[in-house]
Design brief:
Length: about 325
Amino acid sequence: MPKVFPELKSSPIIKRYENNPILSRHDVPYEATLVYNAGVAKYEGKYVMIFRDDVRTAYGELKLKGIHLGLATSDDGIHWNVSPKPFLTQEQVQTEEIERFYDPRLTVIDGELYMCFAIDTKHGLRGGIGKIHDLDRLEILSMTVPDNRNMVLFPEKIGGMYARLERPMPIYSRGKDRFDTWFSASPDLKFWGESRLVLGVENVPFANDKVGPAAPPVKTEKGWLTTFHAVDIDYSRGKNGWEEKWQKRYTAGIMLLDKEDPSKIIGMYKEPLLSPETEYEVDEGIRQNVIFPGGMILEDSGEVKIYYGAADTVECVAMAHVDDLLKLCLEK
Ligand code: BMA
């Protein structure tokens, strides 16, 4: 395991939008400190985004007052109008057991909008799946047992079953922080099974800590194209950002999964697609060196927009052509 970060570079085929970030706390008309890790989908002729809004006691302070989910819409996927009120506040989701929802991921299946999200509860971290009605109401369909998170739904049934990628957190059996990417199937989005390992940490040369789903997969001629998050740790790093110790780096990888059996990888780029390089990814914000994709849209032109949280503080976008992404995955 490397003691210091090896140098990693983003692939030259992907271009960050020149006016990143596309959304930050300054765009939000209610209390917001950190605006990031959004889910994005094309739904009913518009781009729809649900973002994570962490409210801290002040910008620069770590103390969390609450996490809300905000809603924004756009005509071009770049310029966003934030709804005057949050989609869901922490107060609305809190129960005796549930503390907060965060890290939303959006997928449209048969014209209906679904959201996967992480749920902090008093008894562990659960993965939720819900259906969004009228961009206004969330109907919860299922919640995993703890600890499981970073779930994303495929945009259609595969072999007659709904499908998801997920990242359970096996503390005892794998040793702390060796988390991998898994696949599960369901007849109804409620009952999940047929679970299979997709990607282990050891399969990713630029990860030494965990690998998990990022944005929901998109369908291409060659298979399911999907990003993943990969984490490596630099044990020599001391205090940086706002934390006592933040030693991790989050990069985005890209892989291609089999069309009929998406638990099988048919290609993977051996280097990061996106690695923290810009100021807003490396130095600015609450945490340094964090890129976390949560949305990926394949346009009719072949352009792929990849939406990602940067430094756990702002939301950004980068673009690549689908053919170049496929080539990266399939290169030997
Ligand atoms: C994970 C989640 C993500 C976040 C990442 C880096 O555990 O909280 O939302 O982007 O850490 O801090």
